[in-house]
Amino acid sequence: MNEPLLPDWKPLAGRVTLFYVPGMAASPSTLELYKSVWHSDPDNFQKSDNALAPTVAQGKLSACGINCTVQPGRIDFNITPLEAGKNSAPAIESLSVLNEQLDRIVAAVATLNLANVNRIALFSQMGKTCRSYPEANDALIKIMPAALGTRAGKWEDLIFQINEPYVSPDAGGDRVNLNQNWSARKLQIVTFGMPEIGQPINMASVPKFVEFIVATYSIDINNAVSPVIINGMNLTKLTAQQQTALLRDALKRSRDKFSEIGFAQ
Amino acid sequence: MSTYEVTPIYIQSFYVQGTEQIDQRALAGNVQTHSYVAASGIPVVGSFAAPFNYLSGLTSNVVPVIGAGELRSDYQELGSALTEMTRVDIAEEWKVNAPVLEAAKFVASQLAAGGFPAPQIFNHGPLSIVFTWTHQADTLYLTVSADKVSALLSTPERIKRRHQSPLSEMAEQKFLLMSLHSYASQYTIPLNSTSSVELFFSSAESAT
Lengths: 265, 208
Fold this sequence. Notes:
Oligomer: heterodimer
Order of helices and strands of chain B: EEEHHHEEEEEHH
Largest interface: A-B, 61 and 57 residues
């Protein structure tokens, strides 16, 4: 599109997901996975008493939040915003911060050598806080490909999504989904004030709700798993090398899309 | 209803969904919501009176966000039961091997993701866990061991169907489960255990 850079758009989230089928070993340790990526202890670690609930290790960097979540069949590494600004939805400081953390995760995946992974996914989301839905719709239409021929209106809850799958040799010839999503969303931030231990509950403890209307653009790239096993052979497990190659390719494609649109790096 | 100018293009899983707020004065304060949906294999359909969640959650190729809050209460109970089976202080005959537990957790999470009703659970030794659904005279037994899943549909009188898969295929079954959910909702088949079971078997057989 070669539009001028769009400084109002900020990264809202980044995620790398690894899907696995269980092998003879126990589930990967959330704590170890977190340390493998960020080389430090998390600020919080929560292991659920429920076998199906996720286990979470989370921490904080100066410019974003980080966490690792493990639940049966799925490992997620998340990059999140820290706190909401006064007039804007919570956002990660800059696209370079998001890129740096996603690169770090992908580099760590190469060393983890996780067995039984059959699917990877990369998710990146940009957002712009708007004053109204029409403003959000307008912001979205401006960054949509002109070929889609949509024009802005006074709609609420706009969701526009396309998938442009491609075939990747890194996925054993399977196709990889490249989903793009343009949405006008209402984000609700709830803040709980916790009284100090021993102090009575007061007004500060009452949850506070703040809402933002946000235009969001998301990219979700994930390899499709073959629905049929051929001659009893499971062709869908990815080696660590394939996982890394797929993720690096996905990172490149998502960054190319961001550059085409004109998001400030 | 407004007309949407959408250029026909060949992109798989293309869909548009939006809600439009009609002029409230004209509708005496009532806000009408319309959704416009187009997807590969599904024709453009008109408006929906109720929220239409299937496309975004079940038939798209998007990876959903996960969270503890999404675990339905019936699956929370199932997860608690699975946890109980590994406690160190329970009797040996009730304790399951770690790889079996991992497999059972995986299968349960796939069933939850597919929107299946949560099964009952029991085990009869360390080498397997059995999930069951009962509807009228039919009972479906899904026996999960460390590396395979066996399904058996029976009545008190006879075995009606039997199917076995390597555990690794359950990853692909997820797509089948999603498909049958979509199918079931499309044709308003009540999503009770019998219809789910029948569809599970027919889709499993067509995949082999």
